[in-house]
């Protein structure tokens, strides 16, 4: 039976990530626990907090998004060996219930990092609709996720609690600095709209008082003629200079639309995937978010 913590409830293709570059080293007689994460942003947060006091392994290969993941029997074995499993929650990992049950682990703690975070509905006209899961794109909500990871690790492995606390504190400071930078640069554009390929930006938009529009709800949906016409009208009624695409295949219709409207295409990375051969660096989240900020400013005419 899986043990669920108070916060919530691999395969050969997975990228095995050994935590490094943290602020502190594990104390003597502490244990290095086995930490599993669902996908990229949770992996980045967990690695930053765990430091040398944990081995972090991502269930989903870094070049595959949660929408496209297909599990294997080896994934079940990997889950069964983990001490703790961090997930984003909010419907991002619906495939996990079956995998965790199949692992037959009696000690695994599953921690939903979205617990306690204010969410935004996928359909603002329907209060009963599912919450949008992309909370990690708001640096302030990401702080809550990092704190949840820190608290869960400290409870599981008290000998390393100081390591987790110091690492989390440093990462939170960086998130606060990122937030202040984004806030300052986007302040002149408050109330303006931007258009992304799929509905991943409501938390980011809310935080910085922007309006997020999108072509399709999910990245694997093909846009209809109605979707294309709706976005065309939005562009013509605004002074947008670019549409915001994503680093994945399947956006040909979006790119064609930009050409038809005689505006540019810029990249806004939802930080769900990255190349399989990437080299981990604790600045990765911040580098990607600053790239997103630069391209958003381009779209807004900055």
Could you characterize what this model shows?
The protein is α/β, with parallel strands linked by helices and 302 residues long. The protein has two domains: 3-113 and 120-181, Nitrogenase molybdenum iron protein domain (Rossmann fold, 3-Layer(aba) Sandwich), CATH 3.40.50.1980; 186-300, 3-Layer(aba) Sandwich (Rossmann fold), CATH 3.40.50. Helices cover 39% and strands 14% of the residues. The chain has nine helices and ten strands. The protein has helices at residues 40-50, 73-81, 96-103, 139-156, 161-186, 202-207, 225-236, 252-261, 284-300; strands at residues 3-4, 16-18, 33-37, 54-58, 84-87, 109-112, 193-198, 211-216, 242-245, 264-267. The strands form three sheets. The chain has a six-stranded mixed β-sheet, with helices on both faces. A two-stranded parallel sheet has the order 7-8. The longest helix is centred in the middle third of the chain and has 26 residues, at 161-186. The radius of gyration is 20 Å and the shape is globular. The model is unreliable at 1-21 (pLDDT under 50). This is Zinc transport system substrate-binding protein. It comes from Parasynechococcus marenigrum (strain WH8102). GO terms for molecular function: metal ion binding.
Q: How does the overall form come out from the CA principal axes?
A: globular
Order of helices and strands: EEEHEHEHEHHEHEHEHEH
| CATH fold assignment of the largest domain | Rossmann fold
Which parts are unreliable, with pLDDT below 50 for 5 consecutive residues or more? 1-21
Overall pLDDT: 88
The radius of gyration computed from the alpha-carbon positions, rounded to a whole number of angstroms, is 20 Å
CATH homology-level superfamily of the largest domain: Nitrogenase molybdenum iron protein domain
Provide the structure class.
alpha/beta
Order of the strands making up the biggest sheet: 1-6-5-3-4-2
Give the % helix.
Answer: 25-40%
Taking the alpha carbons of the first and last residues, their distance comes to 54 Å
SS summary, helix count: 9
- Major sheet attributes: 6 strands, mixed
* CATH architecture descriptor of the largest domain: 3-Layer(aba) Sandwich
Q: What number of domains?
A: 2
Strand content: 5-15%
């Amino acid at each position: 039976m899986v043990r669920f913590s108070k916060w919530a409830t691999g395969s050969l293709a997975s990228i095995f990530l050994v935590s490094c570059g943290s602020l502190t080293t594990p104390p003597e007689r502490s244990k290095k626990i086995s930490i599993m994460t669902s996908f990229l942003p949770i992996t980045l947060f967990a690695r930053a907090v765990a430091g040398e006091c944990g081995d972090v392994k991502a269930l989903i290969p870094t070049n595959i998004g949660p929408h496209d993941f297909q599990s294997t029997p080896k994934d079940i074995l990997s889950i069964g060996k983990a001490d703790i499993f961090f997930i984003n929650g909010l419907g991002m990992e619906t495939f996990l219930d079956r995998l965790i049950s199949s692992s037959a682990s009696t000690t695994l703690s599953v921690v939903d990092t979205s617990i306690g975070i204010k969410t935004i509905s996928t359909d603002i006209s329907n209060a009963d609709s599912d919450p949008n899961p992309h909370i990690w794109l708001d640096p302030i909500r990401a702080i809550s996720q990092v704190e949840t990871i820190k608290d869960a690790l400290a409870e599981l492995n008290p000998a390393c609690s100081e390591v987790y606390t110091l690492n989390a504190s440093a990462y939170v400071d960086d998130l606060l600095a990122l937030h202040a930078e984004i806030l300052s640069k986007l302040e002149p554009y408050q109330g303006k709209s931007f258009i992304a390929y799929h509905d991943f930006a409501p938390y980011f938009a809310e935080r910085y008082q922007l309006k997020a529009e999108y072509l399709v709800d999910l990245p694997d949906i093909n846009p209809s003629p109605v979707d294309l016409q709706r976005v065309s009208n939005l562009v013509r009624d605004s002074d947008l200079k670019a549409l915001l695409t994503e680093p994945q295949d399947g956006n040909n219709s979006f790119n064609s639309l930009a050409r038809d409207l005689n505006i540019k295409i810029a990249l806004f990375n939802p930080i769900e995937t990255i190349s399989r051969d990437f080299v981990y660096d604790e600045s990765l989240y911040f580098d990607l978010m600053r790239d997103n900020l630069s391209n958003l400013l381009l779209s807004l005419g900055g």
